[in-house]
Specification:
Elements lengths: L1 E3 L31 E2 L7 E2 L2 H21 L6 H15 L2 H6 L15 H18 L15 H11 L1 E4 L5 E5 L8 E2 L5 E6 L2 E6 L10 E2 L8 H12 L6 H4 L4 H4 L4 H19 L3 H14 L9 H16 L3 H18 L5 H16 L3 H18 L5 H19 L1
Parallel strand pairs: 6-9
Antiparallel strand pairs: 1-5, 2-3, 4-5, 7-8
Amino acid sequence: MVIRHPEDVVSLRNTQSTEADVNSVSFILNRGESLSRCSQCKTARYCSVQCQKQAWPDHKRECKCFKRLQPRIPTDSVRLLTRIIFKLLAQSESDQEDLYSIAEHQSHLADMSEEKKEGLRQLCTTLQLYLGEENHDLSPLPPGLDPISLLARVTCNCFSISDGELQDVGVGLYPSMSLLNHDCQPNCVMIFEGKRLTLRAVRLIRPCEELTISYTDILATSKERRSHLQEQYHFLCQCTRCTTEDKDCDMLAGEKTAWRSLRDAIPHLEQLQSEQRWEELLKESQALLHRYTDVVPDRNIYVLRLLDLAMDACISLDDYETALEYGNRALEPYKLYYSDPHPSRAVELLRVGKLQHFLGRLEEARGSFTQAYDIMKVTHGTDHVLTNEVRRKLSECQAELGQV
């Protein structure tokens, strides 16, 4: 089951969502100015009439909930939980046999702080308002799956759904995938194509070796990763990367007071990015990069984040030369932290390659596309839409170089 952020396409499906699900995907995750709104709730958006018709059997009950709560829009977790409740109430015994039951996943309620429990209780109040009186009878739910327990299970086991450039576009519950354990240097990666989730091995796996994925962004220090995992998933990570504090010195390289200033500035800059205030974002990012260029190296994770923000702003403002400058500076730190094969490094190489190609730097672009393709063959597979895009770009470069 997946759910799109409310300002874009709404999409869900109750599934284990492995690669074999491709034939049963009925509608897509998308974004863009041309999306049309649901005429009733004005919240759900769709890329086509066909997409809207396919979504209607699931959206029709949610549509009434949206109208009941307007002008407020509930959080993604409340929306996802509502859809799960509707599915559970309508689920047949055969459906339950086909899927790992959500009841098999831990809620960790006993491990949560009182503050977090209070947050769940507030979300449950929103859920009741959202469901309305006609849906308040939840007694037919399976034993032990009351709303607060379900909400706790969702928050501990849902996945962020990402687009081709690994940007979060929604949240989803994939019950079988939630059973995989975490490692900060995992042997598998999860790749989305629309709402289909594929688990892919990124290195040779020995017989009886456990399959692992990463629950958190590895571009963070051991302390930050452990803190996040403890807060969100209620365990202390004991992986080799955390216990040895691998690469922490590189991540925090440079003058401490300087990188702390960068760290403190990033939430504000990310807010400018979310509001698409590109000129302000570029001006402030460049000022910080210039101010600390001699005291904090590019491999510092906060400088690296600034480079990404500045690159996004430049692309949005059609300043491709400067965008490429920032992209090139980020490549070495990406290689340091995202050891091959890693999808994040492949996506960064693709972005840089596109800029090089557009600016006529064909030899450089061919090199970037080649590296990206070599990684994506492993992380995404040869049939993924992004791998096909890289292959097409590489062919274009080779053809253009042959004409020079």
